[in-house]
Amino acid sequence: MPPSYLRVLLPRHRPPSQCLRPASQCGRRLYSKPPLQSPDAADPKLRHIDLSQLQITRTTNPRPLTPNHALIFGRAFTDHMLSLEWTAADGWLAPRITPYQNLSLDPATCVLHYAFECFEGMKAYKDKMGRVRLFRPDMNMARLNRSSARIALPTFEPAAMIDLLKQFCRLEERFIPSERGYSLYIRPNMIGTQRTLGVGPPGSALLYVIASPVGPYYPTGFKAISLEATVNTVRAWPGGVGDSKLGANYAPCIVPQMQAARRGYHQNLWIFRAPDPETGKVEDFVTEVGTMNLFACIRGRDGTPELVTAPLDGMILPGVVRDSILGLARERLEREGWRVSERRLTMRELETAGQEGRLMEVFGSGTAAVVAPVRAIAWEGRTISCGLAEGEEVGPVTQRMKDWIEGIQYGEEEGHEWSVLV
Which of 190, 214, 238 is at the close of a domain? Predict the structure, then answer.
């Protein structure tokens, strides 16, 4: 039996009939985070954004457009940026759209010392009629608010921020490629700007938005990737900040990714090694792949296919594409006989399913690629084949998810609530 302090690392999942807590709480983690209070919690007025105060200064030196074939992710930027300053005394000041420019920060600015920074990643698309669309911006704004509150940065009114994003996209419309697979990547970023070496909630902050035209993640078609399961480095842990989109979560992941690349793998698969609360055995639990959520398609021994992804237990980033895949799967795959599950998944289960020919396919999901098919996973000196035949680059579920989601993003499923016209 493992020590008691290890036994609570992962939550015990009980069937609802065995759960002593209300049904809505069954399966939640046993540990708890302290109540999160953003600096504006005591005064809702500090969250308010006055849209009538928007100031727009157009550039007098427009950038040339980069040809679609020459676009490299995150290298080319649009003419303008959207910015809002916040102070603990006055809340959000007048929003501004100005020419793209450098930031001026004092060397003692708190973000440079204590990582008061969080961000989002989202895209604008142009449909066949030339209309600009955003994909589920409400989810991005909700997640940005959760991330900022987690590190004592201010929150904002999501609807007002979405309105500002729409105005920003209209101004930058010429940078949004019309070709399918191309889009405008939008990066909202919030930083603490107080000039201090003291550690505490920032008394001032800056929320700014920049944008970059981008091409398809796989310009010549899908290329299945290989993963190395990383067991000696942890991306996230119970009670931590793995479910927040903080820059501080990304920099520590680069070295393990470089190490996996030197061994010939495209990305690493983040593992959390801990005792299984059901059995007491130490297991390698699957969390995320690189900077993406992970899905596996496994055929049960009873023949039922199951789409599985890790639960939102505090260690998993609640991806917008992840949520979209789950929603579409429950709407469209379940009626085909699939089981759709958010549950803990171990490397042992993946390996066994692979050995028995029941591992149908594995893929990552995220804003940049939508989906990324996985060919194989290296784990503890062994290789797990992920269901793709030789010469095959993508499985049928992965392909369908890409087609379904892109169909919504580019307005081909007319009237879908996830596609928001600008």
Answer: 214
